[in-house]
From TrEMBL:
It catalyses: ATP + protein L-histidine = ADP + protein N-phospho-L-histidine. Residues 301-328, 447-463 have a biased composition (Low complexity). Residues 1-40, 276-331, 380-404, 441-469 are annotated as: Disordered. GO terms for molecular function: ATP binding; phosphorelay sensor kinase activity; protein dimerization activity. The keyword Cytoplasm does not apply. Pfam families: DUF7134, HATPase_c, HisKA_3. It comes from Streptomyces alkaliphilus. This is histidine kinase.
Length: 469
């Protein structure tokens, strides 16, 4: 079976540092550009022209002389860096506007630069800095004007409300921006989550399909290969003393295995292509095949009979795993997993240990779990190697290619919250598979969307070949 893998690529992170979230999840501070932008230079030029016009036309103070124009320019030019360093720009504006007002120049000329600096500080946040800076600007302005004239200081306190208006407006704009950014971020996160979930579901579905097709085809093809090899061996080595009855049984077994595999394949395809109706399409002869329920414990005796037809000696305990003596019916999901685990274990035993292998399959219900044990004796005994050599010829006689059988069995066990162990027997030659499947729904840890497990092999014990699914 070709390896199936799906890799979910995570979105590339933005190299630019983002805003720091506050406790409510909103941005505390909007980071500006690292250097001035043309829009900031254009705004600074507009503020300079407006300030110059107010200085020339306004009559609320003395006409600015060279010192006044220099202070007014010093309050305006730093606005180019207002988004890079808002607090430093506001400080520079205050240091120039304070003496400008103290010298009695036209007060209206300094208002545009002050408004832009205060607004920028408020709109970039955070709120605590805005409040402290606004209070400082008001107190400093009132103190400077009171030092010039007490009446002017009181008037300045009265008209300082514009500072509060600008601060509140800037804070409102910042909150709105934070809200819009939060909405966009949640939408992007939800979209990424949907894409990742869709990719994960696609990967899981591909894994499930690969697992089902592997279990379905590997079992039938292995049995057909073994039976064909045995029949070929009988025809080639001793045609004069040919046991026609044994040959006929072998060929009938091949036909039965093909028929069973075809029926299971049809059932699997019906499930994959189902649109809510499992009726036959009437488009071909395969519609005459059964499309019954998915595998369960009632099909395990058939698996044992198929393995026996291939030459294996299979001992099944209990003889009817789904009967009353075995504890009654098992829920469909763990029953299907148990069927596939037994099927793959028998396939591996016949394929890797030869047609003369002796296999013992035992299913026990203990409490709320189903325990499965499948062990074999490691292969043929002295005098029984000829048939095994025929099977080796079918496999090409070369090294065993890693497959996905044991990995698929482990995935099936995990899919129902169970566990599976596979490895060489410690007490005798051979191989053993042990699985524990809970009969009640159990929390299953989610597998990552990175793809299926790597091909796994059956560890080789002393004197035996690696035995791979």
């Amino acid at each position: 079976m070709r390896r199936v893998s799906t890799e979910v690529t995570a979105p590339r992170p933005d190299s630019r540092p983002g805003p720091r979230p506050d406790r409510g999840g909103r941005s505390r501070r909007h980071r500006g550009p690292d250097r001035p932008e043309p829009s900031d230079a254009a705004l600074t030029a507009g503020v300079a022209l407006l300030g110059a016009a107010l200085g020339l036309l306004s009559r609320d103070g003395a006409f600015p002389d060279a010192t006044g124009w220099l202070l007014l320019a010093g309050a305006t030019l730093p606005l180019v860096w207002r988004r890079c360093h808002p607090l430093a720009v506001l400080t520079a504006v205050v240091l120039c506007v304070g003496p400008y007002h103290a010298l009695g120049y036209s007060h209206a000329a300094a208002v545009p630069a002050s408004v832009v600096a205060v607004y920028t500080l408020a709109v970039t946040g955070p709120r605590i800095r805005t409040v402290l800076a606004g209070a400082g600007v008001v107190l400093l302005g009132v103190s400077i004007m009171a030092a010039v004239d007490a009446h002017t200081g009181a008037e300045m306190l009265r008209v300082a409300g514009w500072v509060l208006v600008v601060l509140v407006f800037g804070e409102a704009v910042r909150i709105h921006r934070d809200f819009v950014e939060a909405v966009h971020e949640r939408a992007e996160r939800a979209e990424r989550s949907r894409e990742e979930e869709a990719a994960r579901r696609v990967a899981e579905e591909r894994l499930r399909m690969a697992r089902d097709l592997h279990d379905l085809l590997a079992h039938g093809i292995t049995l057909i290969g073994v039976q064909t090899a045995v029949a070929s061996h009988m025809l080639r080595n001793d045609p004069e003393r040919l046991d026609r009855e044994a040959l006929a049984r072998s060929l009938e077994g091949i036909a039965d295995t093909c028929r069973d595999a075809r029926a299971e394949l049809r059932r699997t395809l019906l499930v994959l292509r189902s649109d809510g109706s499992s009726q036959a399409t009437g488009e071909g002869p395969e519609d005459d095949l059964p499309s019954g329920p998915l595998p369960d414990l009632t099909g395990i005796p058939d698996l044992a009979r198929s393995a026996r037809a291939a030459g294996a000696a299979v001992e099944l305990e209990p003889a009817d795993p789904a009967g009353p003596a075995a504890g009654g019916p098992v829920p469909p999901v763990p029953a299907a997993a148990a069927h596939r685990i037994v099927q793959e274990s028998l396939t591996n035993a016949v394929r890797h240990a030869g047609p003369r292998v002796r296999v013992r399959v035992r299913l026990d219900r203990t409490g709320e779990a189903l325990r499965i044990t499948v062990l074999d004796d490691g292969g043929a005994r002295p005098g029984e190697r000829n048939a095994d050599d025929a099977v080796d010829a079918v496999d090409g006689g070369g090294p065993t290619v890693p497959g996905f059988g044991i990995a698929g069995m482990r995935e099936r066990a995990r899919s129902v919250g169970g566990t599976l162990e596979a490895g060489p027997r410690a007490d005798a030659p051979g191989f053993v598979v042990r699985a524990v499947l809970p009969l009640r729904p159990a929390p299953v840890p989610e597998a990552g969307p990175a793809g299926p497990a790597e091909p796994e092999g059956r560890p080789a014990g002393a004197g035996e070949r690696p035995r791979l699914g």
